[in-house]
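User: Predict the structure for this protein chain, please.
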Amino acid sequence: MEIPSSSLLSLSLVLLFSFVLATSADVHENFVQCLTSHSENATSISQVIYTPNNSSYTSVLDFSIRNLRFLTPETPKPLVIITPSHESHIQVAIICARNHGLQIRIRSGGHDFEGLSYVSHVPFFILDLINLRSVSVDVESSTAWVQAGATIGELYYSIAEKSKTLAFPAGICPTVGVGGHISGGGYGMILRKFGLAADNVIDARIIDVNGRILDRESMGEDLFWAIRGGAGGSFGVVIEWKIKLVPVPSIVTVFKVSRTLEQNATMLLHRWQYIADKIDDDLVVITNITRVNSSEEGNKTAQVSFVSLFLGRVDELFPLMQKNFPELGLVKEDCREMSWIESTLYIAGFSSGTSLDVLLDRIPDPRISLKGKLDYVKEPISEIGLEGLWKRLNEEEGAAAQIITIPYGGKMSEIPESETPFPHRAGNIYHIAYFVILEEGVELSNRYVDWTRRLYSYLAPYVSKSPREAYANYRDLDLGQNNDKGNTSYAQASIWGVKYFKNNFKRLVHVKTMVDPSNFFRHEQSIPAVSPWGKKRGN
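Assistant: Here is the predicted structure, written as structure tokens:
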């Protein structure tokens, strides 16, 4: 049952006047007592509260940590974990946390690149949405309500259960949580046809800093705009999205063609840049670049895999490829026809014949420790520039690296930059994401992280400038971060905020200041709440 606004206000006032400073131990004990004493059903909420004294605490904490960089003895741990099974649990948690000085971390799938959904350096608790993951599909209206704790795989599976010709333009990795994915934009294999996941949200339900449950009408268009691409953890707890499903044919076509440097991969990737964002909107061809063994014994080489999804049959795809990218040498035998839901498994790298049930598995296999970055490319990188990329891939750390390019154009170029907070639209040929799997040990791990930074420096002449754009869902604390204590100035936050959001950052700060002026929802790269006076002063 939703807690009435009048009761929430009374609860806030009572707790505010009774609040006293305490040690961390006292804080978490008082916080837990607050949760149970002010919940309408103390038994219900007690079953979803985990403290370090609870035997399940470690398993609950570790279950949704996807980046092993943040699964170490030295990683700060939450004082409390809450896995709400009802919206009222979230409402009480927000009110109690505000008044007992605990910072909130909101975890959906646990894929945050910098662990910001489950790590903090100040006293905090985790609100883990794993129990709120229902999906309700309405085929007649081509819409669905999906709770924020669901994964992309669970969403895709639920859609496919109801229809073979409906889809949703979300991501490639099925274990990513819907809550964070949509909050930052969310790209996938049909972005050129339908845009981002956030572009296809038509309503949402959010719990704000005062514990109120708001939908699109009651939250207003400013906040509804901000949560569709402004990234998670800044404005409230999104508990549910209403999404617009998109039509796909009953049969689609996929292919994967790999070429090494000895097989003219440099020329092919260079040529790909000139067609990838301009070909038919029903077709996307991404690339996956890795280091492999060369045909020459003992040597290494780079391999570029061209991976494609076409919303149609092979007989339609083949002429398009012959016309636009004949250099690849695609033959019909390279292509496979299948349903859209089967294509999600193919693109995710599952072997042929894998059951669709794998989409319901929330744990990636294997879990890895990684560091990643992402850039936007507006002009084709020269062959000389690509050869420099191969040199860096040939370094020792390059053996553990993966570089992925995703083309834009199509629908992505039609949507204005200011339509949602995600601004990376017209003018971008593709984005280039690069990751490295870290070796064990602090010294080795730091060396591999440094490799990504060196690659970032190398790419500077070839990617977007003023600002050098970045993607909020690929968090990168190298770009800057908020102060651990006290307020962060608009000028300081702009260092990273403008990279993620360009001119939309100003509006995001305005919305944040309106809906969460006390900056309760915050983390290292959350949108800051800044007074107009402070902004003008640059403080």
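The two ends are 43 Å apart (CA to CA).
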